[in-house]
TrEMBL record:
It comes from the Bacteria. PROSITE patterns: PROKAR_LIPOPROTEIN. This is Endonuclease/exonuclease/phosphatase family metal-dependent hydrolase. PANTHER family: CALCOFLUOR WHITE HYPERSENSITIVE PROTEIN PRECURSOR, ENDONUCLEASE_EXONUCLEASE_PHOSPHATASE DOMAIN-CONTAINING PROTEIN. GO terms for molecular function: endonuclease activity; exonuclease activity. InterPro entries: Endo/exonu/phosph_ase_sf, Endo/exonuclease/phosphatase, GPI-anchor_lipid_remodeler. GO terms for cellular component: membrane. GO terms for biological process: GPI anchor biosynthetic process. Residues 1-23 form the signal peptide. Residues 29-242 form the Endonuclease/exonuclease/phosphatase domain. The keyword Transmembrane helix does not apply. It comes from Actinomycetospora corticicola. Pfam families: Exo_endo_phos. Keywords: Endonuclease, Exonuclease, Hydrolase, Nuclease, Signal.
Amino acid sequence: MIARSVLLVVLLLGACTVAPAPASVLRVMTWNVLTARYDPADWAPVIAAQRPDVVALQEICASEATALAALLRARGLVYTAVPGPVVPSPVEDAAPVNAALRRPCADRGAVTYGLALLTRLPVVAATTVLFAPDRRDEQRGYQRVDLGGLVVVNAHLGLNGTAGPQLATLAGVVAGERGPVVVLGDLNREDVGPLGSLTPVGSSPDRATSTPIGGVGAIDHVLVRGLGVVGADAPEVPVSDHRPIVAELSR
């Protein structure tokens, strides 16, 4: 598993080509939750404490995303769950590198493990896209969720040298969007240069001492275009090997 040290980076990818929404603050969160070791009941208090409008989750089962939304609704936070299973082809599914996908979710043949988005905003459209299969790592992919004037991309990139081409693909996706975009996820890279010119606005290490931005192990990111940055945080939590990254964005 990945070290818990994380980096928050905000990527300003250029001016928006549509009129901005009325002034408001959008609270977003990204979190690799490490399922199979932890469960929705463990994650719900963390999300409820942060109260994000949108939370992108990695390493989660589809059924867990639905259960998590139900737990949060019981706390008075009405979220829509948008599961994004990373489902490989039958041939890739049988490959040894993908064997781990079956274990966390007990999905009995249909892989339901991967990504999910919880949102308090209306969902206009949602798709899950697979990156090209690569024998060096398990199948990876990203979600694209249209929240009506705002596109959120939830991504989990690969290990063992696979993240580079996947990041280039992600850059093409972002470049093709016309309006405001938020990219959230575990990119498994400190350098996300192919997505454009970076402006780092904060760093939260997994220790109390200060760590320079760009430190070793910084892989979880919030990237935005067409939105301003109000604030950011990465609270320490005991229920994952990653810290959640939380950012407040102005619209």
